[in-house]
Amino acid sequence: SDHSLQYPRSPADMDWASYYPAYAVNKEIEMTEGESHDHDQQQPAPTPHGPISKQVEIADIGCGYGGLLFALAPKFPETLILGMEIRTAVTEYVQEKVRALRTQHLSTNSYQNASCIRANTMKFLPNFFKKGQLSKIFLCFPDPHFKQRKHKARIVSYTLNSEYAYVLKPGGVVYTITDVEDLHKWMVGHLERHPSFERLNEEEEKSDECVEIMRMETEEGKKVTRNGGNKYVACFRRIEDPPWP
Ligand code: SAM
Predict the structure, then answer these.
(1) In angstroms, what is the span from residue 74 Cα to ligand 1's centroid?
(2) What is the CATH T-level fold of the domain 16-22+49-238, as seen in this structure?
(3) Does residue 45 or residue 215 have the better pLDDT?
(4) What is the 3-state secondary structure (H, E, C) of 4-56?
(5) 66 lines ligand 1 (CB under 6 A)
(6) What would the pLDDT profile of 169-189 be if each residue is shown by its tens digit?
(7) pTM to 2 decimals?
(8) Which residues pair with 234 in a beta bridge?
């Protein structure tokens, strides 16, 4: 259950600097409880808190073990990317890996743009992101919830699509991929029906490097490749809202 999950009241209330310390606005570091002022070289640097100088632009929803996150980070070094994952242990694994990669690449500052947060993305997504903040949302191999009565747990629905439309900027893209044909049809159907989205055609899909990264780099994508399964891709562009009458 998500009783222990915490949500910011608004995107401005998020402690973004603790996720992207290299982009912290307040270089003055407040210590959190348990952190020591007289840290030496052995100790990890204390975490800054508060706002950051950029905003997250790419969200990987249900990021799992972060394969996509770690593949995208060096491709989009100027863009902040956030993995969102509901399972505590999996989130911690990704956060640990982010820390390790940052330490390994201190001289180039790589992976400072990638982070992971524990969240139930079916709830309060607009508490994390402002209207029109994101340019890309990835929905990679979401849980299929095969049984009819479980379909309401799928992360594509008319209501959730309205939230994706809210946080995406016009021209932004929702990327979907799955190995379950029925779920693919479900996602395509729901996104096509939504007035804020239009599907990318094959040419557009082919020319978008993120499609290939998403096909090859997520853990589930690799598993499907090993098992020789199909991967169904569909991408949808956020269209401009029509002007008010
Ligand atoms: N995207 C990854 C990949 O392609 O390898 C992981 C796919 S895995 C089948 C689905 C992931 O979504 C799981 O890690 C699961 O914990 C996560 N998940 C399911 N529902 C979620 C929710 N409401 N909010 C955040 N994450 C969720």
Answers:
(1) 22
(2) Rossmann fold (3.40.50)
(3) 215
(4) CCCCCCCHHHCCHHHCCHHHECCCCCCCCCCCCCCCCCCCCCCCCCCCECCCE
(5) no
(6) 999 999 999 999 999 999 999
(7) 0.93
(8) 176
